[in-house]
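Good morning C.,

I know you're traveling, so I'll keep this short. The sequence:
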Amino acid sequence: MDEFFVQGVVGGVLNRHKNRTLDKNRIATLSVEIAANIDRATQFTDVKATAAENPLNIKMWKGYDGIEKPYEKEYLDYWKCDLCGEHTHEVDYDYLGNNRNHLKCELEHENAYNEHLDKGKQMEIKFTEDE
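The tokens, ready to paste straight into the viewer:
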């Protein structure tokens, strides 16, 4: 769908309601009216509504020359796990911990640290009778 087409439809609806205050009910009414106007307007125009009808092409983006380049060293160094040293640039955000580290590495590090603290608590401190 063309950006200017949608802007025109939305602008027309907002123009009709420009002297009214907006509250939750008014916003809901506007969204329904905008959707209805877009649906109605697409019946009379040759607007392609789905991605299958209007596929995007990467060549439309500025600066793309069609040559896939390897990642730069600075980029890979930025996306590097501090704990294991592997790159995390292709890891989903759900599996990243603090500072771009693997969540698994963070948890293993925390468990090892907690075990270290627990060993210290198990040591008994014995005082001599002189003290």
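Safe travels,
E.
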